[in-house]
Model the fold of this input.
Amino acid sequence: MKSGFIALSGLPNAGKSSLLNALLKEEIAIVSPKAETTRNAIIGVLNHEENQMIFLDTPGMHEGASTLSAFMNKEAFKQADGADIIFYLVDSKKGLNKDDEANLKILFSYERPLFLILTKIDLISKDLLIRRIAYAGEKYDFAEIIPISAKENENLEELLKTAATYFKDEVIYYPQDYKTSADQTFRTSEIIRLAILANCDKEVPHLVAVKIDSFKETAKRVYLEATIVCAKDNHKAIIIGHSGKMLQKINYASCKKLRELYQKKVFLSLFVKVEPDWFNSRHKLMDLGYFIDKND
Done:
């Protein structure tokens, strides 16, 4: 039985988290049409009789001036550098662009199999897909070029079978029943953040984080308290909304998903706190669960 680490890399919104969820058949990573949704690397493990695949869902590779952006970018490249195979995902509607070119220059320097995964192929014509594949094949020396649709489960089995042929390690890194590094606390905070992403203005979600303050579980109920951290007073006003209606909406959407996670009734209390420039503070980022390297 062989195993291998596979980094899911690419620009924001390329479809990395959607692919991870589709492969594991569970909503491990939150998915949103808004960019920069994934912030921490998430491990997902897929066990077969013949192999164990360890997927590293990484933040989108992008330019950013904040400490948070720098952390996300470093996290993405660090995970790719430590993997056995790199899946570089590209939205097939957009195709390869200059930002991809800059990322690929670094990724090819790691000298490991680099797959181009063209995602969301259910949204483009076959002719355009053929042109995308031809262009990528002429411009880069990818180990494999595989078009997929996570939504339609198209070519996912082929992707897994092809990746397995590159595995060399005869070591099982995780127990057979292990599925993800995303524990319930992390997934709870991400579910709440997804509700904010889905309901608030475009500017607000990128400047918010969620911290779980208290957790209590009984046989039938889960009691949670969480703080939504934002950067500006006007963002706090938007999140709370007129007469608290937006916060109620976020709470309702969060509880709906949390009931699925815990399989119990969930009682959630949300608080909103302004922390100016939190995304540029190493101390605050660590307090919020971002694993900043102390040596940086």
Notes: The chain has nine helices and nine strands. The longest strand covers residues 208-217. The chain has two domains: 2-164, 184-287.
